[in-house]
Amino acid sequence: MNLRKKMFLGFMAFIVAPLFVLGTITYLLSQSIIQQNYAEQSEFTLKAVGRNITYVLKEANYFSQASMQREDIQRMLGAKDGVDAVTLTEYDRLLQRTFLSYTPAYSVTLYDFERQSFSQGKIGYRPLSFAELAKLPVFGEVMALNGVPRWIGPHEFENWTGNKPLFTMIRVINDMYTLDNRGILLQQFQFSELNRIFNYFGTSHSNGVRFMIVNQDGLIMVDNKDKLSGQTLSSHIDGSIHLGGEYESGKMKFDGVESIVSVHHLNLDEFGKMNWSVVSVTPWAYLSGRSMQVIQWIGAITILSLLSALLFNMLFVGHVIRFILYIVNSMKKVEIGDLGIRVEANSKDETSALARGFNSLVERISTLLEDVKREQERKNKAELMLMQAQIKPHFLFNTLESINALAAQNEGRKVSRMVQRLGTILRVSFYHKEEIPLSMEIDHVRNYLEIQKYRFEDLFEYEIDVPPALFSTPILKLTLQPLLENSIQHGFEGMESSAGDGDSERQKGFLWIAAEETEDAVVLWVQDNGAGIPDDVLLRLHGTPGSRSSGGSAEAGAPMPEERVGLGIPNVADRLRIHYGSRYGMMICSRPGFGTVIRCTIPKRTTG
């Protein structure tokens, strides 16, 4: 007999049977008591919650009323000819001092009947234009109420007020002396106090209770568990409940769980036109465990169950416990690095399967550690290649020779410019961080290309098209320079010697460096009109693990000296993959005689 059957039979004989007999008696006695007591307690709690919600809305109403009756606010709405920038700044400060000084206030917008509007709010708010306001289904009600606020709960009109947990109040602003209509106030509130109210009564009343605020259509505007907001109450209950009465409670299934659903209508008529109710949902299983009489019975049941469990432990569980301790001791040895440990099990039950699983897991960990070591070796190799690619001795030597030639010709201005560009290149190469802003990388590339243009006069031209908005994007240093160096040394090779063939446009190389922003990444482009990459070399680059679909990796081996590609391209691809992960990397498209296009994809971030 396997372990599962042994455990099942023992459990049924020594625990389930005694608990069933005693539990049945307890259940019959407690059902009516629990439901009766909870109905009274729930009514008291919901009314207390309702009073607190009423106080929160009353306070917001009073604050809004006092703010819009200020003389400076009334004068703001009296402007007829528009406002200049200075006055508008003063109005913004005024809105901040008045309406937004109230902690729950999220945003405020004032409209006059000349269709002017003044808005202020916290980060992320979206002001409504007067045209959008006029399209609200409740706009006619607001005008008819003539100063009495019209409240809109969260999710009631998401197309206009958004889907954030915000309460929106719209009211006509009357002149404080003549009571004439001066404009309209739209103010949004983020009542974090509601969460404190729900949490307070939820803790004191029942940890399993769910509180919701719903409108007359059953739309759940607020859910203290932040899961059902925006949904309808009817889609979660299997019965019907009246939302307009003062109090109603019933036992029904809520999301498939037997629960007590209670409704209390909020009396908010004096604060505006609202027809809201507060709903509480408490699982019946949780309520049954809170009866004092049940607890007493559970105490007696527990004593009997413990005696049965003790006998059960002596007869059946002992073997399992010993095996578990054996597994634990083996796991401790694995934790200190002994990956050669293996668990032996001679029984024919599930413990043998557990032993095999443990052994398989240890073997898998050992394999993964080896993979990590190999990956680290690859990273070290790529970093070594980075050091080799930073500033090559021959480039530095040739640049210094060029500077020397300029100095001999008394070209002091050009010498100064060349030294400055070389110093910038060296500064980036020796920068202590691995990532630099894209602006620094572009500056490095520009200086490098200017030096190469002097060395290879009339060999190529270049263009850099990078939006300033992307300058703060971090990028691995020396990502673009090896790609450009490859184009100059290999792609444009032979162009000077072929000059004079009559095709003057084709004899001059062109480099194009660009960047663009996608939804979650920044894409860098390097394109030349050079000789292109031979198909066999490109195919070998496509098969390396340095990029997702194509590209190169130093692990694939450097191409032969006569080939179009040097160490730079595989090095860049390997570094991008190791540093940013498999989602990012490099892709190469090339055709012999038609040039090469390289795309590098990096994450969209900003430097700190």
UniProtKB/TrEMBL annotation:
The HAMP domain, residue ranges: 318-370
Compartments where located: Cell membrane
Enzyme Commission numbers on file: 2.7.13.3
CDD domains: HAMP
Compositionally skewed regions (Low complexity) per UniProt: 545-560
SMART domains: HAMP (SM00304)
Catalysed transformations (reactions): ATP + protein L-histidine = ADP + protein N-phospho-L-histidine
Enzyme kind, highest EC tier: transferase
Mode of membrane association: Multi-pass membrane protein
PROSITE patterns, alphabetized: HAMP
UniProt region (Disordered), positions on chain: 544-565
Annotated coiled-coil segments of the chain: 365-392
UniProt GO molecular function: phosphorelay sensor kinase activity
Keywords assigned: Cell membrane, Coiled coil, Kinase, Membrane, Phosphoprotein, Transferase, Transmembrane, Transmembrane helix, Two-component regulatory system
InterPro entries xref list: Bact_2-comp_sensor_kinase, dCache_1, HAMP_dom, HATPase_C_sf, HATPase_dom, Sig_transdc_His_kin-like_C, Sig_transdc_His_kin_internal
Main location: membrane
Any Pfam family: dCache_1
Parts of the chain that traverse the membrane: 7-29, 297-325
Protein name: histidine kinase
